[in-house]
Specification:
Layout lengths: L5 E2 L3 E5 L3 H10 L6 E4 L2 H30 L4 H12 L7 E7 L7 H6 L7 E6 L4 H9 L5 E4 L5 H13 L4 H8 L4 H8 L1 H14 L1 E8 L2 E7 L4 E8 L3 H10 L4 H9 L2 E3 L1 H7 L7 E3 L1 E5 L2 E9 L12 H8 L8
Parallel strand pairs: 2-3, 2-4, 4-5, 5-6
Antiparallel strand pairs: 1-7, 7-8, 8-9, 9-13, 10-11, 12-13
Helix pairs in contact: 2-3, 2-7, 10-11
Length: about 325
Amino acid sequence: MSFPLYRRPGGVVFLDDDPDYLEMLGEVMPPEWHVQLFLRPIACIDLLKQDSAQRENDAWLQQEIIRRWREGALLIPQILHYWQVDGAGRFGLVQVAVVDYAMPAMSGLRVLGELQDWPGSRILLTGRADEQLAVSAFNRGLINQFIPKQSPDLRACLTRAVEDLRHQADQRYQQIWCATLSPDQLALLADPVIFQALQNVTQRQGWTEHVVIGAPFGMLALNAQGQASWLQLEPAGNLGELAEMALSQGWDASVVQDIRSGRRLIDLELQLALGDGHQSAPCEAFVVTGEAGRLHAALFAIGEPFSPGLSTSYARFQANHGERRLPED
C-alpha cells in the first residue's frame, strides 16, 4: 500500500428516513467533516449522480496537468493554479455515503444499486434482521462496510469507519499522479516506515490536502486556511547532486557540506518552479530510514502570493456550507 499521492477532505452523506435519528447523526459527527443529510432516497441518488459527473470533471483537470507536464510544463505552478482556479468546489465532492437499509420507499441496497457508477465508499446501517443481507452485500463488493444500528457505541464505531474510508487512497488519483513518479520513488512511498513518517508530518502540520509528485520529488500541501507548503524529499543518493547545484548557485562551503551530508536541504527546484518571487534557502532536514532506503526531508513555506489563500480554503468552504440541516419535505 503506497502513501496517498492525492488527498483532500471529502464530504459525507447520510440517508435515513427517521428524522430524529438523522438529526442525531448530524449532531455527533466530527465538526470538521462536510456532512449532508437526506431523508428521501431519490434526492440522495440525484445528488450522488451529479457528484459522479463533477468528479469526472475534476479527474480530467488533474489529467490535464499531467498532459501539460509531459509537454514540458512544470508541475508545481500548475497544481497551485488548479487549487486557485477551482476555488472550493472540490471540497463538496462526496467521499462516503452512509445509508440506512430499512427504508419503506426504497431499501438502502436498492439505493446503492442505483449508484453503481458512483466511485465513493459505501456504509450500510442495518437492523438485527438485516445483517445476513448486509454480509452478503459486503461479500459481493456492493458495500465497503456495514454497521448495526444497535452497536453499543454507534457514534465511535461509525466515526471510525467513515474516517478510515475518508483516508483511503483514491485509486483513480493514485493512477493519475503515479505518472510523475519513478519506480524507486514509489518504492520509498510504499515503505511502511516512510509511509507513517509522512502521515505524521501531515497531521502535525494540519494539512487538509496534498499532492505527491516526482519531478521534483516532494509533497505540495495546503492547510485549512489555504496556506501552501512544500515538503522536499531527497533520497540519500541524490544529496551529492543537490549539493553540486547549490555550489553552482554560489552557496558557501558550509551550506554545501550540510546538504551533501543530509543535515540540510535547499529548495532550488521550488525556486525554479515559482520564479524570482520565491527565494531559495537551506533548511534543516530530518531523516527517515526504511527497508526501501533512506529519505531526507525538509519543510519549506510557500509565500502568500503563490498560495490559494483563505478565500478558497477548506475553512471558508466549511463556514459557508457547514450547517447540517434536515432537508425540508
